[in-house]
Amino acid sequence: QQQVKQSPQSLIVQKGGIPIINCAYENTAFDYFPWYQQFPGKGPALLIAIRPDVSEKKEGRFTISFNKSAKQFSLHIMDSQPGDSATYFCAATTGNQFYFGTGTSLTVIP
Amino acid sequence: NAGVMQNPRHLVRRRGQEARLRCSPMKGHSHVYWYRQLPEEGLKFMVYLQKENIIDESGMPKERFSAEFPKEGPSILRIQQVVRGDSAAYFCASSQQRGTADTQYFGPGTRLTVL
Description:
The complex is a heterodimer. Chain A has strands at 4-7, 10-14, 20-25, 33-38, 45-50, 56-59, 62-67, 72-77, 86-94, 97-100, 104-109. By secondary structure, chain A is mainly β. In chain A, a hairpin with a 6-residue loop joins strand 4 and strand 5. Chain A is globular. The termini of chain A are far apart. Chain B has strands spanning 5-7, 10-13, 19-24, 31-37, 43-50, 53-56, 65-68, 75-79, 88-95, 105-106, 110-114. Chain B is globular. Chain B is mostly beta strands. In chain B, strands 2, 4, 5, 6, 9, 10 and 11 form a 7-stranded mixed beta sheet that branches. In chain B, strands 1-3-8-7 form a 4-stranded antiparallel beta sheet, with no helix packed on it. Chain B has no helices and 11 strands. The A-B interface holds A 6, 31-32, 34, 36, 41-46, 49, 51, 89, 93-103 and B 4, 6, 33, 35, 41-45, 48, 55-56, 91, 93, 98-101, 103-109.
């Protein structure tokens, strides 16, 4: 059973566009929601994270929107660049374990 | 401050051999997590360890797989009698403390290929 559902599976945008990646969860015990960026052949790297007591968090061009009542959160990438092309994973955690989404492959076309 | 280190980066084994994957956590981190990633899939939790203790191994197959994190030295993920289905990228992550809001930092992974 997938604890965190992520969509879309892949996404193609033009440079300067705003790709949006969505995640949904069921377990209300989750209390920390990080996003990871992974380039081919590399390990996932933390991008940005949010706690459920905050509805939005922005770091540079990356923004997380969090809707606690809907149990959904999303990643927005402003002014996307070709260098943002990577796979993005959302995650949710409580206690020991992180549960990861299945990933979104983002391609930003120059 | 060195990040999480994993070795080898690539490992090739024939069916029936043993695979040993090593992970050195970030300095000051005493919590280690192992994940498996199959092509086109997300990360699947395998096991969570602290020094000398296995805290949660609920994601690890009951047979052929084992993990340890000794008092001295790296954490080891051991796969005995490997099969083709074990081919995957294995990632180790470490964190400073247990519990909520403590970020896991990932190593570069070990890519295991079983011939």
